[in-house]
Amino acid sequence: METYFWAFVVGGLICVVGQLLLDVGRFTPAHTMSILVVSGAVLDGLGLYEPLIDFAGAGATVPITSFGNALVHGALTEAESTGLIGILTGIFEVTSAGISSAIIFGFLAALFFKPKG
Amino acid sequence: MLQGHQTWVFLNRPVILSSAVVGGPFEAEGPLAEDFDLLHGDLWVGQDSYEKAEKKMLEEACEMAIHKAGLQKQDIQFFLGGDLLNQIISSCFTARTLAVPFLGLYGACSTSMEGLALASLIVDSRAGRYVLCGTSSHNSAAEKQYRYPTEYGSQKPPTAQWTVTAAGAALLGPEGDGPKVTSATIGRVVDMGVNDPFNMGGAMAPAAVDTIMAHFRDMQISPGYYDLIATGDLGKVGYKIAGDLLKKHGLEIPEKVFVDCGLLIYGEDQPAVMAGGSGCGCSASVVYGHILNRLKRGELKKVMIVATGALLSPLSYQQKESIPCIAHAVSIESE
User: Fold this and answer.
1) Are B104 and B91 in contact (CB under 8 A)?
2) Last-in-domain residue among B112, B141, B173
């Protein structure tokens, strides 16, 4: 039960940061999203994002910051096992599920729904 | 005839013989629904793209205006049109359908009055007998071009405005029944350095004020001359700024007289529009529908329309340029 609570609080706080960037920082939605992704990447580089996931679960994995974390995390893990080249091969190691499904489901949606908006 | 610095006075008083406005489903829920000649329940207007839908609405508005005046397409000498889409395709493609000699205009949301001013000039100078002017905008087509794909569902701040899905056209002739265009003030481009495309009302307000001041200066009249002064689409934010700026310049216009088309077109029960309506179709539909109807009913005698336009492009905004703005004023009177 406690996990749910912290997931709610931490996930919500990340969204609050995003909303503040939009409303107070006057960043565009695209800039806001990029800032959050890069923040996740930097936090993981400093070794701080994994402890946050352990603590808040989905509260830390669902927001877009998790994508930045996954990019860096994959690269670092792969670099440890295969050396420098691992940085290149590992970036999409963890994120490949997300990226591949975006492509596949995007393709399927386009097949059936003719997006034109 | 030029009067003062930037105002044309039309001594022959061109007549607005007819006008027609077409709107979308969201406009049909607004307080001015009854002033539309045709309202579509479908945002696609039976077409397979939003761009085609916008063109269809402009075609309908033009054809209805010609029909209402009891004329045929071949009676029209010139068609003046413009819209928000790249290369003003809605207007160009409508001109293709109409097969009437065409002049394409671009003044963003000020295009409605840019067109009406030029059409009046042509009729007044006898360079054309019957001249049609029209403009259109479509919410989803504009969102797609200027902001984000509609499916993306991007958030907007409360200062943002809602592009009106509508088209409006007016047909002018040298004589006949109908409200008369008496003067027009062509605006300067004013840029106060605002670079937030989600606050275009704020950016456009100084341009509106500049043109209003120029009009009164050139015509040597005071705001009391008019029963109604309607700005194009400043929305809540821009309307407030324009009111404050006018006061600062010593022009106190009563709230009953000074209105904004962007605020008239939607109701309080339509919060999705945020700060109010915008787009070429906003001032076109409000003026060619609602305001002309009020003139015809005798509720208003003398009105001034100040259509405002934000002359930005998605590219100029991405390159961090500020937003140059313009406003054109046209006076319409019913005797």
Assistant:
1) yes
2) B173
Cα B27 to Cα B138, B160, B230, B283: the distances in Å are 11, 18, 19, 13
CA distance A63 to chain B (A): 16
Q: Which residue of B has its CA nearest to A114?
A: B48
Q: What is the mean pLDDT of chain B?
A: 96
Range of the domain at B328: 180-333
Instruction: Assess whether B26 and B90 both reside in one domain.
Output: yes
Provide the number of structural domains found in chain A: 1
Q: What is the pLDDT of residues B37-80, one digit of tens each?
A: 999 999 999 999 999 999 999 999 999 999 999 999 999 999 99
ipTM of the complex: 0.74
Average pLDDT over residues A55-59: 95
Q: Which domain holds residue A94?
A: 2-113
Cβ of B155 and A29 within 8 Å? Answer: yes
- Tell me the shortest Cα–Cα distance from A25 to chain B, in angstroms: 12
Residue B320 falls in which region: left (phi positive, over 0), alpha (psi -120 to 50) or beta: left
Structure-block tokens of residue B165: 């899905």
Q: Map tokens 């923040």 to a residue.
A: A39
Query: Which residue of B143, B151, B196 is in closest CB contact with A115?
Result: B151
Do the chains contact at A22 and B50, CB–CB below 8 Å? no
Looking at CA atoms only, how far is residue A116 from chain B in angstroms?
7
Same domain, B155 and B290: no
Number of domains forming the structure of chain B: 2
